[in-house]
Structures are given as C-alpha cells and as structure tokens.
Design a protein that fits this description.
Layout (H helix, E strand, L loop, with lengths): L11 H6 L2 H25 L6 H16 L13 H13 L2 E2 L5 E2 L2 H31 L1 H13 L1 H5 L7 H16 L3 H14 L7 H8 L4 H29 L5 H9 L10 H12 L6 H19 L7 H20 L10 H22 L2 H23 L15 H9 L6 E4 L3 H7 L7 E3 L4 H9 L7 E6 L5 H9 L3 E7 L3 E7 L25
Parallel strand pairs: 3-4, 3-5
Antiparallel strand pairs: 1-2, 5-7, 6-7
Helix pairs in contact: 2-5, 2-6, 2-17, 3-4, 3-19, 4-5, 5-6, 5-8, 6-16, 8-9, 9-11, 10-11, 10-15, 14-16, 15-16, 16-17, 20-21
Length: 528
Amino acid sequence: MTATARRPPAHAGQMMAWSPGRADRLAALVALLLAAWLRFAALALDSRFHPDEALFAAFARGAAVQGYWLLPGPLDKPPLALYAQALAMAAAGVTTLPDGVLTLEPRAGEFAARLPGALASLALVAALGGAARRLYGRRVGLLALGLGALSPYLVAFSATAFTDSLMLPALGLALWAASGGRWRLAGLWLALAFGCKHQALLFLPLLALLAWERRGKRRRGSLLALALPSLAAAAALSLWDAARAEPAGVWALAVANNDPGRLIHLDEMLPRLAAWGRYAGFAAGPPPLTAALAALAAVVLVARARQPRPPDARTDLRLAAYCLGYSLLHTVIAFNLYDRYLLIPLLPGLLLLARGLDGLAAALRRPAAVWAALGLLALAALPAATDAAQGRAPVGADRGQHAGIDALADYLNAQPLGTIIYDRWLGWELSYYLGSWSDKRRVYYPTPSALAAGARCQPDPAVRYFAVPAWVDPRPWLEALAGAGFGIRLDYDDGRFQAYALTPPRQAAPGASAAGSSWPDRTPPCGR
C-alpha cells in the first residue's frame, strides 16, 4: 500500500495566520503604535520649556534664525543635538517678516525643538526590543519592546528639548549594534551620542562589558572599534570649540558645571538614595508596579544564576553590574540629583525587567495565561505612561512650573523700546520667550543689595521692571529697592508671575555725598 500525503485540515490556514511569527509581529506593531501615540501626545502638549530646555532652544534658535551656527556663548554641551533642533526649527518653525528678516515664534520653536526627540524616541523603543531579542530571544525582545513603549520615564523625556532626548536613542542603537556583535557600528552610535552630550561616554563601560565575552585579538579589536569613534568625536569637538573662540570653551564649562569636586557626606546618603528611589519608581509604570517588576527580576535572575548551566547568566550579570556601578557612582559622588541622570542605566534596567517577566511567562507556561498576565500589566502601566505624556509625572521637563511665562514675556515686550528688566530668577526661560529680536534689556543682580545699588546707579531714564515668579518671596528685594528711593508699583500679576514697575529716585552725581539724602547707610553711593 502506497503512502498518501495527508491533506491539511480546512482550518490550517487559520492556524497559520496565528503562528508565533505573525503574533510576534502583531504584538510588536501594537507596542510601536502605542509608543507613537504616547510620544506624539507629549509633543502636542501645551507646555512651556524647562530652564535647560530654554537654554538649548535659544542656542538652536540663534543658528536657525540669526545664522549663529558656531553657537556663540557659554555652552557646555556638544553641538549635535542643538543642530538637530536648529534644523527642525528651520524646517517647521522659522518664518519671514515683511522686511525679509527671519523670525521664530516661541510656541513654534517649542514644537520644533522637541520634534527630533519625539521621533528619535520611537527608534529607541525599537532598538531596545531589538537588543533584547538578540541577547535573550524572541519573547524577551517583545517584553522589552512593551516596557520601552510604556515606560513613563522614557515617555516623559521623549518630546523634550534636553540634549538627552537625542543622546539616549543613539545609546539604544549602540546597545542594539553591540548585542549583534557589530562593534564598529556600536562605536559609531556611541560617538554620535557623545556628540549630543558628554555623559554618553558613561555608557562605554556597558558596551565594553558586552565585548569582554570575546577572546584574545577579537576582544581587543572589539574594544578598539568601540573606543576609536568616540576619540575621533572628542577631537572633532575640540576643533569645533577652538573655532568658536569663546573665553570659556565647551570642555572647561562641562567640567565646571558637572564636577562636584567631592564625595558626599554621610548624612547625605539616605536623602540621595531616597531621591533616586523616587525617580526610579517610574521606570516601568507607577512605583508599586515598578517595584514588583524589579523584585520579580531579582528573583528570576538569582534562580537562573544558580542553575548548572545558566542560560545568558553572564549577560544578566554584566547588565546588573553596570546598573549597580552607575548608581553607586552617582550616589557616592556629590553629582546633582537630576532626574534625567537616571536615563542611561534605564536602558539595561529595562532589559533586566524584561528578563524577569520572561521568567514569569516561563512559569505560567500556558500561552493564554501568559498573554492575560501581560495584558493586565500593560493596563496597570498605561495610566502612568499617559500621565507622563500629559506632563503629570514627577519626572521629565518643566511639569507646569513656568506656565504663563509666555504671557509675562508678551506683556514686557509691549513696553517701550529699551525697557530695562531686572531678572533674578527667569534668565534662560524669559530670554527665550522674549523672542528672537527682543529690544528689551535684561539685567541680573544676585542679591537685594546688589540690585538696589546697581539700579540706583543706572543713569538711563528708561522704563524699568522687576520680574518675579510666584514661588519667590519678593519682599527683601522690594524693601531694598524702596530703601534706595525707588517708587514701586505692581503692574502685572497673573498669579504665577509678577512685574513691578520701578520709578528711580533722583540721580546723585557719581562720588557725591549721600549725607542728608534718603539713601540708606548700608548701601554704597554710586562711584564707590
């Protein structure tokens, strides 16, 4: 009897349609669409700049509007992210006035400066999924893709004008390339990340740990391939900085602004750990969910490490060691506790959380139970991710602190030509929102007495204003001005910002005696 080929059942086509490969692609598509929805919602949010965003956007605007492509001024960051913002401004924000002069409205500049970060964040989510798939397999790749899409931390920093918003996707692509053994490409992405922000070099130890798995000449070649592009980028940055001919260069300012110069004191340890813990709580969802996922990952990684031939345990150990080392470095050394400093270790951290979820999936075994559990986790994480997209998470950019500063700037711009604005607290933000071609003069004094002395010695009869945010008590400053003979009138108050009109006293000649005048003894007369 001859064997006959068996016909597939009538429903085989349906079974093939739901094969693991098709299900994976559908799940990946859903994760990327969800990531895009969250990030474009963040991009569309009507929010003002954080002070650092305003600083970087002002440099980018100078290039796009005034042609200052060497970014003159006190800059402590490499230029690549700022150039990306400037190009976005030129393409999606710059307009031409009737006299042919280019200009950029502040709101249009906000959108344009944040656009590159929002788009690059999608590449970061895909890179995380790709790196996890290469390192650990199909299921971990999908889990990392979902965690990256829903991470409130990544959502909060996606559509921002921080230089981190372009540095981080470049680091994610470097990790993706390194996970596939493409060390030259990984080195190139690392160099591009460094071109956005110096701190990208802190990612080099992680890539080096992954390259250490190789042996002999292959290991040395991998390490060289990682390091050489960054060395070339550092040399290019030095040449670019020399061409700017600024009194204080990028390197010097980076050291001055970021070097704490000391270890922390013992009584600082617990507050710093608590701050890092508050930030880290939003890595993968609301803090309880993130804590549960971290505990699950720790249990799963320890259990796998104790197996006779633990699969991928060395990679787990390298990722965990890097996260621990980075955290200790930023805890023991007195660096500023900026929430964005947690972004770099978040990349390997999300891979470890995906490994923990993979252990849960392996324990559940039944595909239906796995998908149900992952669906519940996604639903639990989604509200925190949505809050981050709406600026309600306690991490990210300005979070509404400077809402209304554009209205204050409009009010000040409506004042006469050459108006003097005494500005102690709103420097970078107010400078940006006053616009590309402001005809106002902003003056900074660090103390009430310095303001009173400097303002009294200003001979210009121009209109003067003192700008104050709502979170500052202006009384010491107003008392010093009143003691110097100034008339003070509250001209603008929207509950968030105030502007006091100042009427100067009659000017004394430089070096003239203050005897018999209302000038208080504690403040020196002009010319002293």
